[in-house]
Amino acid sequence: MVVVGLFSGLSAAQQTTPSSSPEAPAQSQPQAPAQSQPSPSAQPSQSDKDKQGQSTSGSGKVAGTSSDRLFYTLPNFLTLQNSGKLPPLSAKDKFKVVALGTFDYVQYPWWGLLAGISQAQNSEPAFGQGWVGYAKRYGTTAGDSTVENFMVGAAFPSILRQDPRFYQSGQGGIPRRVGYSVSRIFVTRSDSGKTQFNYSEIFGAATAAAVSTYSYHPKSTFVRTPTNPHMFIGSDRTLTNSASVYATQVGLDAITIVVKEFWPDVHRKLSHKSGPDQASTGHSGA
Known about the structure:
- This protein is mainly α.
- It contains 8 helices and 9 strands.
- Helix 7 (199-215) crosses helix 8 (239-271).
């Protein structure tokens, strides 16, 4: 296992590193046996841990998460690279990291862009056009994103004790890595590290689709148009629309995970970095 190899390497480093504490005796003193307790000064530094493959992605604002951003902008706090076994996130931490990503400053213009596309396509025509229609679309876009993020990344993982983090693989060719990424929609880890069916994604996304569809998306109404002052628009609060929203959310989540898998490679190329210490030799995931 990665963890066993890691601690074996640390143990070997401790056994061959003399103590540098002030109380250490002169050089004539024989080296302490391997079973003796290593002094604090003999503990490996953070840079040593990084070189031995210890996670450098667990240093986000919430312990055990990342501070990474996709394309330097979109929050990617639940993706980990080069990570060994990490402590499970508490329910509080799951909600906190999802809140940090959901209400990040970059999300507000992103929602604005998506609302603009929706307005241009005249989706959900009951909202109408103009600034009022745009404001309604902005609100539903923000609401859909918020509800889905919290259901999939915080609420269901907390209830079911599942790990909402994505462990980047970085191993094998493109087809294998794409397959691994897409499979994370259906496979995840429990808080204890066991492989499980990803109930949080499947049922969380379904719950989010139902909540958003039947709570704040438009009901049936009449709208005024230049050619028809009393045009009837059917309700969007239907099972068919809810299923469409659900399929869209799961599909977008799958695409996003694939992007997360390959983003470190793109990042290195954009940064013109190379070498074994930057290579994606991360944990193979669940």
